[in-house]
Amino acid sequence: xxxxxKLSINTATIKxxxxxxxxxxxxxxGLKHIGLWRDKVAEVGLETAVELVKASGLQVSSLCxxxxxxxADGAGQAAALADNKAAILEAKALGTTExxxxxxxxxxxxxxxxxxxxxxxxxxxxxxxxxVLARQRVADRLAELVPFAxxxxxxxxxxxxxxxxxADRAVLSTLGQALDLAAxxxxxxxxxxxxxxxxxxxxSLREQIARAGAAGRIASYQVCDFNLPIAxxxxxxxxxxxxxxxxxxxxxxxxxxxGYNGVVEVEIFNxxxxxxxxxxxxxxxxxxxxxxxxxxxxxxxxx
Amino acid sequence: xxxxxKLSINTATIKxxxxxxxxxxxxxxGLKHIGLWRDKVAEVGLETAVELVKASGLQVSSLCxxxxxxxADGAGQAAALADNKAAILEAKALGTTExxxxxxxxxxxxxxxxxxxxxxxxxxxxxxxxxVLARQRVADRLAELVPFAxxxxxxxxxxxxxxxxxADRAVLSTLGQALDLAAxxxxxxxxxxxxxxxxxxxxSLREQIARAGAAGRIASYQVCDFNLPIAxxxxxxxxxxxxxxxxxxxxxxxxxxxGYNGVVEVEIFNxxxxxxxxxxxxxxxxxxxxxxxxxxxxxxxxx
Lengths: 303, 303
Hints:
homodimer; alpha/beta; TIM Barrel; 11 helices; 41% helix; 15% strand; globular
């Protein structure tokens, strides 16, 4: 019987709940952690959010999201740095060391940071489709943010996104690429998240999870399923574990073998799930976690 | 001014045209090649298809598609081998050395070979979500097909598909993975196709295209764009070059640097394009090819 000691439900999974409701649901469910999106914090203001979190007794497992570092122009780059510094301070105030970074898409197509579903319009620029250049800009902005993150004790957690979002959300598409980006920086400053939805298909996944573990870079293990057919809005094609195509046994085993034994966060964007009663969502997440995820996160003893 | 010497339009781009119509359109457009799907061949029967192709004077640049090699059961595996041998013989009869291989998805989710849009239902099997196992089965079936392909002078052309199709169409997701699969076999027997739609996002694309060229494995360069937002049916999110997010300048240059100077095939699955008058589709393909693709396929002279 699971104690759910390590399960954390991200507010994006119960998107329509307020921060207060999400905290209450997690406490009632016997959880010790919660994952937060910045939109829920902004709804009540940072100060109130900090108070609510403290009163709940929950530990914030991560704050989502910083990033959007691919702007080609000086004004866009300055705005991105300012927004990420604000996110780092919010994370610190909320008591988490982990800020999840969605690095941004091609300048011509990237959505803006903010709400779960992005929003905002991109305008065409010279070289706006050059993904090699966009990736270089991510490396450049990351280097500029690292000192600030170190100073405040917050880790920039790079999230490789599924390649179907490479143009509009993240030119960071694989765990190997994330580890290459992280390599020049201290492990306290730059980590990676293994999100099953985004990386399950990667032929080098086992090897790159092992590499991430050996380098001390795994900051979070996020789980949800990849549903088929892909939802009409491709962003919302996530599902409860077990409803899609992902083999949680293999990936969980690889994460455990890599030495990760931290919090497991469940983050699901799915219109149908958003429309369910919150308590039903939480119960289903707990049941699927206990059945499909947790049993594989035990590190086998050698010999 | 382009002579369109190397442009080939795949019948999937004008899906509703008959084989005879597609041949006639290509000839009228001044093209020298055509790419064929097996459904168009099946509609008239192989013998008639061979006659029509001969009468047109066109060279078949590739036949699409073989593959679907991931069945977990003996009957499914035997059926796949039989179907692929038939495809090899069809390719040979039609005068092309290239049979494009879509390797198949996870056993629990893979569509069946056949029409452009797949079809058929998968049933759950033990280990049916294990992508590592499914990939091993592809390697095993490929090894079984190589002698037959060599005997008939037809090359099995591995097509990495975009990771959003990893579960239902191809567990082969990157060019690097395709080259690893090809490596044990003679270059005359196993090649790879670089299809911009599927690989544009890959952080190791330049390096893997160079590797493919050095190994003599590039059998085809296929171009179309990746449209955003992703179409409600994700299979149909392809677009005319220039309508989506892909940087054809960079990829074309990498392909040219890798030494490829063969046919460029345009294969677009898109409901809106399928509903346009065929001649308008052909004209648009030619214009976009001449503007966005061909200029970058010139190999720069060193020094």
